[in-house]
Each structure stands twice: as structure tokens, then as C-alpha cells.
Amino acid sequence: MSKIPSLDLGEIREHIREYSPAFVPMFIDKQRYHVIWGGAGSGKSHRVARKILLRLLEDGQEGIIHNFLVIRKVDRTIKRSVFALIKNIISKWGIAKDFSINLTDKTIIHKPTGAQIMFSGLDDVEKLKSIEGVTGVWIEEATELQQEDFEQLDLRLRGDTGTYKQIILTLNPISAEHWIKKVFFDSDLPNVFTLKTTYLDNQFIDAEYKAVLDAKKITNPRYYKIYALGEWGTAEGLVFNNVTCRLIREAEIKPLECIQGLDFGYSVDPTAFTHNYIDHVNKKFYIYDGFYEKGLSNSQIAKKLIDLRVHKHIITADSAEPKSIASIKAKGVPRIRGARKGKDSINAGIDFLSDYEIIINAHLVEVEKEFLNYSWAVDKNGKQLNKPIDDYNHAIDSIRYSAEHLAIRRGKRGSVKKPSGV
Length: 422
Description:
With 422 residues, this protein is α/β, with parallel strands linked by helices. Helices cover 36% and strands 22% of the residues.
């Protein structure tokens, strides 16, 4: 959406009608539950952020003071996602002077009316307890939540607010067994509005990213169906079926061996680092911390590793980028080395990890998403092949690198098997 130099709500609405026609019904509908779903790159989050700001400004002219609550599962994911998004829209609309933006408290206050947008993760329990008078809720990446989380948020939206109350869920669908599908699509729950969009509805998607998604029609039809077209997926053909996502307590991993991996990316693919612990006795593999971001330079990667205080442990990185490894080492990360890789290293790594219960820390939502979608490739006849797809594998590759020395050691003992599920 092009920049609007001064605040004119009528002009803003006209821009929405002209440049976001697929989303116009969302701006009009007043039912309690809005499920805005579909594929990646459709612009869902951008349009919902605009709706929230528009309601805050329009209703403020009528004397209604909003207290919007914007939620993600984990608090640490907020600043670089929904908070930054709404802050940027305020700037684009030319109304930054009317808002007080507190990055520490994660609040955005409209100074003329006192209306506010509050941001919180469900893991920030004390902040959630202190929030009162909520007039609307936006749950971003709603598939991260458990049904119990949603029920608690639903109960908080009550009382006379002077306007309609609404909970907005934005999501890219994952498993067809997910509670969101059962509650909002497979039942007769009243007062529900759903809107599905894909990257094909987004006039502002960049050409390179659109070409990447288009290519998945041929290279990975399952990926295209779920990730690009936003259709509910199934567990059929998943590489790993031994995965749990929950909060990992430090006491669980303190006595265990630490192993770490790094997979390089930049513009299209993310750089993925995982800080892991392995319990050989009880056969548990803990993915405890890490980062998953696009556009990171070697200097930024090194800084993140140092800030996480993990740089003194061995890090096994993708050996396809020896210059990056050398650069990161020169910037204060001495114990980084290249992965050996070699013939059948991917399947050997999968085989090794398949013997363990994989436990993902609750805040690592991108890692969980990969495990929910990493599947065996199929041929043109739909027959499963003896290799995984080359998608949803950036964090998984980093995890394989971290355990490579263990998989090689076991392979030398002659215990490597064919990958499970093949």
C-alpha cells in the first residue's frame, strides 16, 4: 500500500478497497471470531494490522477508547514481527507524532485519545495478568497456540466496550488435525467469519519471492499445496514422527552434552542456528535455543552467537561456505568448524535422529514448523522416494550438522539403518 502523507480515514479506506480487494470483507464484518488464513505471502498480517489501527482511529473519533491485545505464543518473537509491523504502518501513514511507542513495555499508545495496543506472549504470564479492559484481540500465528490458550483469551474479551468485540486469528494452516480446523471449520460454532487468501491475492508481493513459490508447483507439490496455497496438510510422509514441542526446563539439559549446528542462508532462505543437548541414556534430543532469520551477515551471525553465550561450544556449520566459517571464526567464535557431509549424510543424520525423542523448546516456533512439514519426496506417480524434500530443512540441517560426529561414530560401528518411513 502506498504511503499516505496525512491522516485521512476515508482515503485510507479507499486505498484498502483499491489495493487489497480480497480483504475488504474482513474490514466490514463484525462477528466475534475472525479466522484469516491461507498461504504464505498473502499479506494477511499487514491487512489485519491496518484493520486494528483503523478501528482505533475511527472509533476514537466516536469517543470509544480501545485496548487492543496482540498475542503470540512466545514473547521474544513479538518485537521483530507484529510490533515492528504496526510501528511501520504508523510511520507510512504519516501519524507517528500522534503515537507513543514503548519498545520495552511493548505498548503503542494513541496520545490524542489514550487508546492503546498492547503486545504480549503467552509465556509472559505476569504481564497478561495485569492487562484489563481488553476491547479486541489479535492472535498472530495462531497455530502456535493450544486450544486452552485460546479459551483463556476468549474469556478475557467481555463487558460493554461501546463497540463490537472481536478476536482475530491469523494463520498458515498446518496439520488437518489441528484444533483450529476442528473448532472453526468442522463445527457449527456461530459468529465466525473466515477469509482465505494466498500469495496470488497480494499485489505487493516481490517478484523474486513469487517466482520461488511458483516453482514449488513442480519441485515440491506438497509444499506448494500447504505453504503457498494454504491448504490443510496431513501427517502422511513426514520424516519425523517423534517430535514434541514444550517448555524445556534448564535442569533437564544441564548435565547433558551440548552440540550445536549452523546452516547458512541470506535473502531467500534463513540462517538457522540450533543449540542442542543430547541424552544418550534416555534417547532424548533437546533443541533448546537458537535463531532463524533472513538477511544476516557474517558479522551479525557472530554477534548473535556471542550474545547467546554459546560461542565457546563447538559449532558445526555448513561446509559449503568455508569463507563464512573463516569470517565468523575471525569475529570471535573460535570453535566453529565445517560439517564433513559426504555420501548419504542426510539419510544417515535422519536415521540417527529418528532413534531419539526430539523435544523442541516452546519459543522455537520456526523449528517446530519445519518438523511438521519435513517429508519424504515422491516421484511423478506419487511413490515415496528414499530421500527427503529439499524444503523445510534449514533448522533441521543445522540439527543434523550438530549431531554429525555422533552419526559418523555410530556408522563406523555398523549400526546405520535405512531411514524410517521408507
